[in-house]
Design goal:
- The chain crosses the membrane at residues 30-49, 55-80, 368-396, 402-423, 444-466.
- Strand 3 (100-106), helix 5 (114-127) and strand 4 (135-142) form a beta-alpha-beta unit.
- Helix 18 runs antiparallel to helix 19 (442-448).
- The protein has a single domain, classed as Spore Coat Polysaccharide Biosynthesis Protein SpsA, Chain A, CATH 3.90.550.
- The chain has helices at 17-24, 31-47, 54-64, 67-85, 114-127, 148-155, 178-192, 213-228, 252-257, 260-265, 268-274, 291-297, 308-319, 339-357, 364-378, 380-383, 385-395, 406-431, 442-448, 450-469; strands at residues 5-6, 10-11, 100-106, 135-142, 161-166, 200-204, 210-211, 237-243, 287-290, 324-332.
- By secondary structure, the chain is an alpha/beta fold.
- The protein starts with a strand and ends in a 14-residue tail after the last helix.
Length: 483
Amino acid sequence: MASTLVDGGVPHSRHNAKLAKRTSAWKPGILPFLIPLVLLTLFSLWSYTPSDSPLAWLITICWALPVPGVLVSVQGFLLIRRRLRKAHLMIPPAPVEEDFMIVLVPTIGRHDTYPALERSVLSYVEHLPEWFPYMRVDVLTEEGCEAAERIDALAATSPLIRVVTVPKAYETENGTRFKARANNYAHELRIEEGEALDYVWVLHMDDDTGVGPDTAASLAQFINRQRRATPEEVKHMAQGILTYPRENAVSMLTWFADAIRPADDIARFRAFTGLGTPAAGVHGELLVIRASIEAEIGWDFGPKEIVEDARLALTFCRLYPGRSDWFNGRCYGASPVNTKDFIKQRERWAWGLVALCFNRKVPLRYRWFLTICVTSWILGPLQHVGTIVFVAWFIGDMNTSPVTQSVVILWSISFAYVIWAYWEGLRLNAIASVNGKRKWWEPMAVLVLLPYFSLIEGMGGIKGLWKFIRREENKFVVIAKPA
């Protein structure tokens, strides 16, 4: 893969100067945030005209809403810069000699998802054993899946790969369905086989997401660090960065749009998960957790749960506050093959997250921040200045100022962060690619396309919200996975 940077900036292959130079350049930039912030603030203060119209109140609400999430996100990437400055204090990566690693890869087992599954599983077998001499890859499938023979043939290529088949007749106590049901079967199997132990770690991966040498080294560094931690400091769960190499993308448009995801990992997720309490949720790939902790929480969240990873995170917040961490390793996924699948993917996430925000089984103190983030996401198109100008033109009131001048400063902070997120996210995805660089025109193209990205993100969010309001039956939609 692209690089060998591990937590604290320690390169594994020191002889490979090209890779080391590429990863050392990754440090999150602050100028892509500060420059837009200054320019937007000056412009918005200059153009402000007082108003107390209904449109002004709508603008005030929409522009103020994202600010808590944005401030948390800014804290997150500043924490990374701070940690990289303390690289000399980090424990150098070394093989994990005392712990056992289980890589769990759930797959729907369709023929259109198999090529990505094969790419991902082979990357685990190639890169992880050097750092994890005691490990296994469990490919989790459903009985009778259409690609079963191909998956069995893949397992035969390495003694490290095991196929775990979920029987069709399997049911959980609470009637959980979809991916959570499969994960629950695997967790019950680990308990039965005596593997639900403190020194057994489960690395959750998606079937289209591979790893590289940097992933393995950084993950090993995190786990070894827990052996040296005091009982008050030891961590039980951690999350890394999800990136999208250019060569895994079918559509350049969706590849550009997915620049927001690695940026979210180095910002919002870094802040919450990295500070010990993953109240912003987690994603289901490059998520590592002790088998003993997962055995206590389980995945049996009920039949309506389709964002099982976020639900696991909020339950973890309640049971183990302060016990999660973030590590500076990357995994390598693939963007949706087209805009239709992109919207479909976001629709499922929004559907499940809105339901989670209203789930009273989760205490409000653990879901209030997630609720703000989800609401801000769904209302994203209304926060864009282009949308506001269009609405103002349509109703014949061209005063697009909020009620108070202070709100334009909040808007400037939020919009500057959006620009930073796509700028830095694109850089991360480019670094994760084979050539390791952005093309000269790509950053400008991404900034020009921001209104379009806001639209398709919002469309997915609104469609998910509408399905929740209509109380449609939950569906775990799996899009096609590129090889």
